[in-house]
Automatic annotation (TrEMBL):
Species annotation: Zavarzinia compransoris
EC number: 3.1.26.4
Binding site for a divalent metal cation: 31-32, 123
Function summary: Endonuclease that specifically degrades the RNA of RNA-DNA hybrids.
Name listed for the protein in its UniProt record: Ribonuclease HII
Lineage of source species: Bacteria, Pseudomonadati, Pseudomonadota, Alphaproteobacteria, Rhodospirillales
InterPro entries: RNase_HII, RNase_HII/HIII, RNase_HII/HIII_dom, RNaseH-like_sf, RNaseH_sf
Length: 214
């Protein structure tokens, strides 16, 4: 097998704090969870690793981790980092649109931090307006920045727990299994039961169901 190129080695490397160190503390990483689902809020988290902190091993893009690993790292991140969590509600998603609601959730996460960051690293290619500090958008940031990767875990676990609670409020939809995403199970439940107040009526599949009287 030929040796990997430097580019391939870089792509395989876990996220680290290189970018945070270059910017100087305090730098927060920001990520979101729940832009695509048909139901539930969109959540965001902002994470700052204090100087001298030793982040737990295994932090990476939340989508690459099992639910058990995310839960374990969620607790470890809360114990070792400064964390802010923000949400935008279903009503706000429907009123503002999902992009603007996501930016709002990110801004709320930064506002919830115990300190004002000197710089923010934001996963993706868009920046929330009105942040209290300069910011840099970082495509695939959850695979590059340890702060963003940690934020992705916090946001994902926080939102999953909201959806698990919604499963008790709205039985029959399977929210605890699909987390509001557009799975066949979710679609079948919607056709059978109709949408709830927890569904995003601005999203095309839900809007179509309402227009067709389910």
């Amino acid at each position: 097998m030929p040796p990997r190129t430097p580019k391939q080695r870089s792509a395989a490397a876990p996220p680290d704090l290189t970018r945070e160190a270059a910017l100087g503390p305090p730098v927060c990483g920001i990520d979101e969870a729940g832009r695509g689902p048909w139901a539930g809020p969109v959540a965001a988290a902002a994470v700052i690793w204090p100087a001298g902190a030793v982040p737990p091993v295994g932090i990476t893009d939340s989508k690459k981790l099992s639910a058990a690993a995310r839960d374990r790292l969620f607790d470890a991140i809360l114990a070792g980092a400064q964390v802010g969590i923000g949400e935008a509600s279903v009503e706000e998603i429907d009123r503002l649109n999902i992009l603007r609601a996501t930016m709002l959730a990110m801004a709320r996460a930064v506002a919830a931090l115990p300190v004002v960051p000197g710089h923010a690293l934001v996963d993706g290619n868009r920046l929330p307006p009105d942040l209290p500090c300069p910011a840099t958008a970082l495509v695939k940031g959850d695979s590059l920045s340890l702060s963003i990767a940690a934020a992705s875990i916090i946001a994902k676990v926080h939102r999953d727990r909201i959806m698990a609670a919604a499963d008790l409020r709205f039985p029959g939809y399977g929210f605890a299994r699909h987390m509001g995403y557009g799975t066949p199970e979710h679609h079948e439940a919607l056709q059978r039961l109709g949408p709830t107040s927890f569904h995003r009526t601005s999203f095309s599949p839900i809007k179509a169901l309402i227009q067709n009287d389910y």
